[in-house]
């Protein structure tokens, strides 16, 4: 049967409207089933600790379970790429740290574009780093530590959670600041690195308070300083690096949340509202305070995260190029 040409525009418009309505309804009804939060690092690490506490807090306002899935490897790039390739329906989101901004300089070939393949949701927490060593390390304070490591730099090993990890970046800055290079031992995550530090198979490392606070309070490692501008409330006896003598030394590991690019704005809005509610949840705030993390509830929005990434990519790019560190 032929269709009169004069009815074609109306027919096409009707078809377009029919396609839009289901998508609109999906956005309005979001979420109707669990949301997966990808953590691009091994389970048990500092970002994983933040993610699992935040997932539970967000569940309360979303009305759906938020499932944390660990997709580790290649300094976080494998899990990050997984989110970039996921459907833009809001059911797969990414919780990543400062490595989101360092990867473009560290990796010559990234399987995603950090600037264009994601829709920012908001900043989450900022976590200070701690300088810790095996419990029998022969230095009682930071001054003694600095003297000892400079004198024995060819004999000492410094662990990290892999190229591009927060502990790796902190270590690079520390070595650059004191003018010394140590044998660096990369691991597949912070958990394995900490296990070897506890087992005295490596000498020291720089790691986030979310991973070290319990070990420090339990006396299982020696702690010398924190990398924040001010002392950490949960570790009040630890001086800042600046106080201890490394003037201006400050490293904070910010974390953010993203969805794949093209995620409808109503879904981004719901995820952002849930994120803010989660960050303000009393149980979450208490847990982060215990671990020394700073909750960034006022910056839990797309604009703040977008601004952070745009300023951090060139800053870290310059530092990494000067250090001459790259990953294939």
Describe the structure.
This is Tripartite tricarboxylate transporter substrate binding protein BugD. Belongs to the UPF0065 (bug) family. Keywords: Signal. With 328 residues, the chain is of the alpha/beta class. It has two domains: 164 residues, 3-Layer(aba) Sandwich (D-Maltodextrin-Binding Protein, domain 2); 117 residues, 3-Layer(aba) Sandwich (D-Maltodextrin-Binding Protein, domain 2). Helices cover 45% and strands 19% of the residues. The chain is built from twelve helices and ten strands. Strands 1, 2, 3, 4, 5, 6, 7, 8, 9 and 10 form a ten-stranded mixed sheet that branches. The longest helix is centred in the N-terminal third of the chain and has 22 residues. The protein is globular. The mean pLDDT is 90.
Stretches where pLDDT is under 50 for at least 5 consecutive residues are none
Helix/strand structural class? alpha/beta
Number of strands: 10
Question: Could you give the distance between the termini?
Answer: 60 Å
Average of pLDDT: 90
Radius of gyration (CA) equals 22 Å
CATH-level-2 architecture of the largest domain: 3-Layer(aba) Sandwich
Percent of residues in helices comes to 40-55%
Family: Belongs to the UPF0065 (bug) family.
Protein name: Tripartite tricarboxylate transporter substrate binding protein BugD
Pfam families: TctC (PF03401)
Keywords: Signal
